[in-house]
Amino acid sequence: xxxxxxxxxxxxxxxxACAANSxxxxxxxxxxxxxxxxxxxxxxxxxxxxxxxEETPGENTGAKxxxxxxxxxxxxTTDSAPRAASDLAVGRNVLAWTAGPVTQSYxxxxxxxxxxxxxxxx
Length: 122
Description:
It is built from two helices and six strands. It has helices at 3-20, 28-33; strands at 39-47, 50-54, 64-68, 74-77, 93-99, 108-117. The radius of gyration is 20 Å and the shape is globular.
């Protein structure tokens, strides 16, 4: 009979340990901070609520992605200072994370979870 409380105690301890070590994010913002960006490149087009980011601008090679900006999209600098969509100017270098599915087209298309504007050299 004593083995049942011991087994239950071990099971409970295992569940608690697994929950404490879980890296599952609570929201899209946290999740995007836990993984590498989906694309790093230059904004070559900004049309309304969409931006085109190209890894190698002007060439038919490299990653290219059209990202839809939503009210949930986090726009910031690499030091986490908040920015607005109007700061996503053509020519800016950015890192971007997606939320949800991304098409397997060229360029890829998806929804932006977070866009980080890289600091210019000046």
